Amino acid sequence: MNNLILIYHIVLTVVLTIGLTGFYVIYMKNKQSKFLLLSMLFLIFILDNSTIFLSEFSENFYLLYENSTLLFVFLDFTYLGIVLLLRFILAEQFNDNFTQLEIGFSVFIPVSLGILSFFGPSHVAETAIYFCFFSALIYLSVRTYRHIKVRIIEDKTTSRIQALYIISIILLCILGIVESNFYYFVSESNVLLSIDALEYRFLSFDIIKLLVSIVGIRYLFNSFETLFNQKSAPEKIDTFCHEHGLTARQKDIIELVIAGCSNKEIGEQLHITEGTVKTHIYNIFKKVDVSNRNQIISKIMHQ
User: Fold this and answer.
1) Whole-prediction pTM
2) Residue 197 predicted with pLDDT over 50
3) Is residue 36 located within the same domain as residue 158?
């Protein structure tokens, strides 16, 4: 089992390092913040995986892991970092800004869990932390699904694969909650169970990291292809309209929007009323999940 864990750690670290480096290179090229956020997410995954690896294979680190409250707090903030980075990535990708309730929870829950970690029973604190972490991942997965479900009708194959991926993450998070309670039950009971090799790992979270890594590396390669295969503005508009299932009339309007025309000027050039132009623009925004002209221009020109 230890040999398998060692091989797994090496392979995953290599993959995560490729993701970290690749996304940072793309960020330095086009300065889009989502690539910096993805790079930071892969960095936190590396730190988390390395910490768990050291706790399993280093006797001295094992003693520190078992007796240091500060180390547990560090690990807890690692989970908080993962959740916040995923939420920021969601905000960037879908223009889905933080709600007031989310801001409140992002402060209240970490403070409460920190207090529990310092003053409460260790196993209770760990179980509460893992419950909040996996619950937050479920929440983010559901929120992501709400953004892509509109596209399932338009692009059945791709969107259904994305939906299946999100459902898999949700099921793994539920398994993670069960897993954390299982370890708590074992630690608090007299049940003798040989789980030493997996004592510090959650299989569900490891699978989640693998899935995120696979999807992330695929997105990384697609981003590199786009980065080094720049298209002209008309080609970008054609590709964008095809990907989002926009009509020929909607494409004409997008071209005029990018040219800087007002609704009145668009109506005059296309021989339609200004009200009809507004209706077309509203439908375009809804289809491509943006809320203003600048966002759709940025989405097209940076694709």
Assistant:
1) 0.69
2) no
3) yes
